Amino acid sequence: MTETLPGLLLRLSEAGDPAILWGRQAAPHAGRDFERLLDRGVLIEQAPTAEWDVCPACDCGLDARPVQQVNGQHLAVCPTDRRSDVVLGDDDLRSFRIDPSALVREIAAASGFGDEPSPVAACVWHLGQTSGQRSLFLALSRDAVRQPGMIGLMRSVARSLPVTVIAPAMAANDQARLADAGISVVSMEACLGDNAAGFAIDLSTLEAAAAFEPRLVIFRQGKRVILDGIERHIPQQPFKLLVVLAEAVGGRSGYLTPHQIEAENSGRGTADLVRELRRFLSEGRQGSGADLIKTRRSPTGYFLALAPGEFDLQP
Ligand SMILES: [Zn+2]
User: Fold this and answer.
1) How far from 145 is each of 9, 177, 311, 314, CA to CA, in Å?
2) What is the whole-number distance in angstroms between the Cα of residue 312 and the centre of ligand 1?
3) Are residues 221 and 308 in the same domain?
4) How far is the CA of 78 from the centre of ligand 1 (A)?
5) Same domain for 277 and 192
6) 153-199: per-residue pLDDT in tens?
7) I need a labelling partner for 213 at 20 to 30 A (CA). Which of 105, 161, 169, 177 fits?
């Protein structure tokens, strides 16, 4: 058994309500923790199933085949071929609906968030405030986080606090869009993953994730730059310079010579161009962005003073 019970319930909940846990999936998790979830209404046992999947490559034309009781046994009957009948055990017939609100309440309580989690939108709850002064949300599905207006909604609930949302692992572009808006996303796996029985969030992963948010995000195609959560409007030439400097990070020398920069920019003076880039990076904020572009001596060169993890160069 590799997946924990909390991990299994969260994974099944991603598909939305109603999420069903089948008896066969539940069987390895039988025990006190499982009974407790039934008592607390996180799992609600359904009536024994009356339908079963049709056999693979069957030509019966049914969506589901009926379950019948024959000689004290439960059979999933194939209407075209008796040899394809399946004998079902008790675990096959059982199923449990996962109550999403009760599941989130369980997680909140186990993680020390005393109050009832408040629903923000379908599949999204506000859990409360972390000790690191972040407003913490939990989304059971990816789509819930991606729905229009979600970013604004979470920010308004958080008031002025920075936002962290726990959600199923997001695609890189969605994650970047949220990071743009200053929202830190932590995957459920990272903070709830290998907790054998408990539903407690590992709060240390939240702070760690927030600390590793990239300071600088560059979108090459969209020609957009977000620095410290604020969009900077950078004209074509200095933007191009920023991209090549970012590309040079982690490369052989890590910097560009004035000669290389001039070659990239049809002969425009390097010092002038670097000055312009620094000005646009620090726009509106005293000094915060200008020192990202550093000068080195012998040989002279320019480099982006960020480690590979501190910025994100998007296609
Ligand atoms: Zn069949």
Assistant:
1) 19, 11, 23, 21
2) 52
3) yes
4) 4
5) no
6) 999 999 878 899 999 988 878 887 888 777 888 888 878 755 555 78
7) 105
